[in-house]
Amino acid sequence: MDVKEHSTRILAIETSCDETAAAVIGDGVTILSNVVASQTDLHARYGGVFPEVASRQHVEVIHAVVDQAMRQAHLGFGDLDCVAVTRGPGLVGSLLVGMNFAKGLAVSRGLPLLGVNHIEGHIYSLWLTEVAPAIRFPVLTLVVSGGHTELYLMSGHGQYQLLGATLDDAAGEAFDKVGRLLGLPYPGGPAIDEASERGNPAAYRFPRAVMEQEHGYDFSFSGLKTAVMRQVSQYHSPTVMPVADLAASFQAAAVEALVSKTAAAAAATGATAVHVAGGVSANRALRAAMTARLDVPVRVPPLALCTDNAAMIGAAAHFHFIRGRRDSLDLDVVPSLQLT
């Protein structure tokens, strides 16, 4: 009996920022391969992602990354049902590399094409874990990364209600900026997490943003970042700056903002569980605080699925594919693509 009668095999490509990634996903829940070529070291000298460098690097490695993903999956292109690719949000140059490569594959191999929202991919990273069979809607999802901090209520596959978002910096962006202020290496998130282990989170009382009623589930991190900058300016030499205490105190304030808003939204919506996804979901303090404070199950992806990857894009694409969605070859990238 033909296995394809009972399963889907989707090749997914992700190039929204500075990771060139490809994966093959079976039935939306099984990772047959997952390959990521990171550019972190390449961008460290700039203290952040340099868009032109990122897109050039994608061009150089994307063919090899896709080839490796197919070999790891032990499949040929004739075994695939679809090619999925991130169409946004992200850096326009980076997105175009992945989109054009995916279109070329779709045409040359006679495969359907599906464009996927990058944020939806992060949401579906939880479907690639052992908890997938236990997921019951509605689920509250906090997507927290270098470019996004958003709360979504998910009432079904493809059904999202945006409850809150950052009004200024994303949480991950704030971590990176504070990391630079403290002289920590890029990316700032992991560096602050590590430094915080040696610091006192109560050493400094940095502000927790309290939003007005109409912004009840929205976030703001610009004031927190400014408070850290002012504190750092009081030290005339980096050698006397208490980096660990500053990192721990900043992290405590950022985590409190994320947890308090999420807890309030979970209680108000009757969510069956809270999912935390995106790069910042790897933060140990955030994981611990969410689990301790919320009254519903808190689920986070494994570390390999927190940061940008193509497996999550393939998982999201599966649920569109089985409902019959297909995209035409005039599909374009949308750098500011919205999920709702």
List the helices and strands and how they pair.
Blueprint: E1 9-14, E2 19-26, E3 30-38, H1 40-44, H2 51-73, E4 82-88, H3 92-109, E5 113-117, H4 118-124, E6 139-144, E7 149-156, E8 159-165, H5 171-181, H6 188-196, H7 222-232, H8 243-269, E9 273-277, H9 284-293, E10 298-299, H10 311-321
Parallel strand pairs: 1-4, 4-5, 6-9, 9-10
Antiparallel strand pairs: 1-2, 2-3, 6-7, 7-8
Helix pairs in contact: 2-3, 4-10, 5-6, 5-7, 5-8, 6-8, 7-8, 8-9
Written overview of the protein:
A hairpin with a 4-residue loop joins strand 1 and strand 2 (19-26). The protein is α/β, with parallel strands linked by helices. The chain is globular, with a radius of gyration of 20 Å. The chain has 10 helices and 10 strands. It folds into 2 domains: 3-124 and 306-321, Nucleotidyltransferase, domain 5 (2-Layer Sandwich), CATH 3.30.420.40; 137-300, Nucleotidyltransferase, domain 5 (2-Layer Sandwich), CATH 3.30.420.40. The protein is 39% helix and 19% strand. The strands form 2 sheets. It has a 5-stranded mixed beta sheet, with helices on both faces. The longest helix is centred in the last third of the chain and has 27 residues, at 243-269. Helix 5 (171-181) crosses helix 6 (188-196) and helix 5 runs parallel beside helix 7 (222-232).
